[in-house]
């Protein structure tokens, strides 16, 4: 009997119906076809499954002695065959192509992220290495300094010295100052180690001593206030505050004055000759001048044979041990030149205005007698102007501690592109933290005294000279969001020319001593422990405001008319 005849035959008895039901139950428990491990085509797979189903159907029929399940079995085979034919029509190949493309993109992203992580780790490691070298160099230099003055070392002096960032110093064995000030022995320490050579018979061997005190609102009556913090009831509040006006009071009479003058000026040369003669005849002051000025005065009149000068750089290094006071005749550039002569401590500077703007020259030259009288008798207000200490570290110094001589600047250090037509590309770090990459004409790192100079022209803020800070001002940055920064004075800045820079950079220090920075070279800047004390005509704040009003005409405009509309 054929399969078609079996499918058409109906069940005529209850026994047959029962057999059909039992056969259906048995068929529900029949195992599925065993998967083939190979990868056959869809057509062969459909044919093989059909053959297996036919074999299973035949076995079930022989065992149960019934043929009533044939129709359901054939319909099941047709549905499975249709399912496999549908799978053959799905775009499996195109799906696999998309997956391959997606995996390739993910591998590219992973590679880029890995390169970024490696670059960041390398930059952090390099920054840590530069910091370690710089700290090692500073520790090495600190050990070479002279330490002494046992009677002058006390807890109160250490606190005051830390507030002014002045190192303890040394050699004069005069008495220790009071607890409200700091003595000249700490300010004018000889930085050069070793014994001091025997002084020339024309030079003064002992300096005048002085002390610095902190007055309240410029008060000179000796009553001083100090900052202290109250923690009452868990609240932090400043109970009293002094305005930190610093007064200098001589403990012994000044004996030696150094004159620094603007060159190529007849009016300055005439005034210098007059002031030198007046100090010698009326004050019995010993006078030092530059070799150029000494030659000019002696050529003019042989009676100026009492003036003293120096012959070489070694004598310049010892000037601060002999000079009690510096008098400058010129503008701010003359003050910068005077400060550059002193690589360590700087005596107080009295700056007479004979230049153009004069942010640091408050004294009028017409009243030099009264001004010098007030300064020599004291006390008088001073401004402690911080200086930047700069080190140029070449790429060859990475494996060993090799640096050039430190350079001290009073205004600013400028890193620019020089004659190159490419943008300056600089990497900047603050201590061990990455700051930014500078892409533009350059960068200005300025003191607060230099905030009214080049930094102001580049868009930086004007800052009071006694504010402890470092100005970070870009020069024409190729970015709309690069604004200037003011950083705390205790940080160390590192500016490096990266290896992938298109050209070299050039660094200038107070407008001179230009040095080329090739790829791999770095410039380290920090606040020097040796500030420049400049005498004030009134006090630090009054002189600063007067200078920006008179020199820059700050916020100068016509007043609003009073006869306009009113509320």
Kindly describe this structure.
With 567 residues, the protein is α+β, with helices and mostly antiparallel strands. Among the domains are: 250-377, Rossmann fold, CATH 3.40.50.10330; 388-529, Tumour Suppressor Smad4 (Sandwich). The chain contains 14 helices and 23 strands. A hairpin with a 7-residue loop joins strand 17 (469-477) and strand 18 (485-488). Helix 3 (42-64) packs antiparallel against helix 4.
Please estimate the helix content.
25-40%
CATH topology of the domain at 388-529: Tumour Suppressor Smad4
Shape: elongated
Separation of the first and last Cα atoms: 118 Å
Kindly provide the radius of gyration, computed on alpha-carbon positions and rounded to a whole number of angstroms. Answer: 44 Å
Strand content of the residues, in percent?
A: 15-25%
* Overall pLDDT score: 75
The largest sheet, given as strand count, sense and whether it forms a barrel, is:
11 strands, antiparallel
Pfam family, one: NAD_kinase_C
Family: Belongs to the NAD kinase family.
Protein name: NAD(+) kinase
Catalytic activity: NAD(+) + ATP = ADP + NADP(+) + H(+)
Question: What's the short version?
Answer:
It catalyses: NAD(+) + ATP = ADP + NADP(+) + H(+). InterPro entries: ATP-NAD_kinase_N, ATP-NAD_kinase_PpnK-typ_C, NAD/diacylglycerol_kinase_sf, NADK. The protein has 567 residues and is α+β, with helices and mostly antiparallel strands.
